[in-house]
Amino acid sequence: LDESTPTQTLESRTLESVAKFINDGKSKRIVVMTGAGISTSAGIPDFRSPDTGLYANLARLDLPYAEAVFDISYFRNNPLPFYALAQELYPGKYRPTITHSFIRLLYQKGMLLKLFTQNIDCLEREAGVPGDMIVEAHGSFARQSCIECHTAYPDDLMHKAIHEKEVPHCLQKGCGGLVKPEIVFFGEQLPEEFFRNRTLPAMADLCIIMGTSLSVHPFAILPQYCEEGVPRLLINQEQVGTLGSRSDDVLLLGDCDSGVRKLAEACGWLEELEQLWEET
Ligand code: CNA
Fold first, then answer.
1. Where does NAD(+) bind (predicted)?
2. ipTM of the complex
3. 246 CA to middle of ligand 1, Å?
């Protein structure tokens, strides 16, 4: 696409046009899609950024390959590297970012249709987005269960195990299988709620994609469910997926927090957003 390619819906492929579209009341069903990049400023590393990403820093865990830490067959034989990492990622240590608060603001304004997140850090919930507005496509640390008999394991015991760096085992008589937070590992099915909701982006009148490399499938396909002519705004360090290929795609390349501040400012919501974030 170049400057001369006509738009279908927006006046132009700019952030200001997206803000005008929102302020004109044309956007009441926003679908937001997020990934690790919205939590990096909270102090949680993403996977794939060179140097700072988790995969670049896993050498100390002595893994055969970086992704093994989230591989279910590797975990069965050696759960220790995952639990070393889980201690760092476990909810409670991090504060939601202003980007998380921006999603809450969309919800408060009655504009959020659904948030699809790949993140497992629960920061969307902590920012005040209700659980039923969120599809945690890769699960989260919110629940845990036995990988053999799938019996749920109590939260307080999980909390204790994480902090004492122990690997928890199933409490069912005769089972004793390994317990794992219900985050989706390589080799595991995505939660049923992902499949139930995955075509929802087709109902959106605006889609905002933030902080994801869109390299994990089937999540990566979600933006393509948006109808042609529905504006798709990408706020990310880099261009990803097929974003930028449609007439109403807007790319805001840079960090998420300044991107959402710019969007909020253009909508006249900046003060409200900053206050909401302060109170979180
Ligand atoms: P990824 O593949 O690491 O990609 C992150 C993307 O965000 C990249 O395109 C970066 O350029 C971009 N990015 C990083 N920081 C910023 C920033 N401050 N502002 C704007 N853009 C930024 O992560 P994905 O989420 O796409 O990959 C999917 C994996 C990562 C999922 O399975 C997650 O469970 C997993 N993950 C989650 C967390 C978390 O819950 N916080 C942390 C690390 C990995």
1. 36-40, 46-48, 118-121, 212-213, 236-238, 256
2. 0.97
3. 23
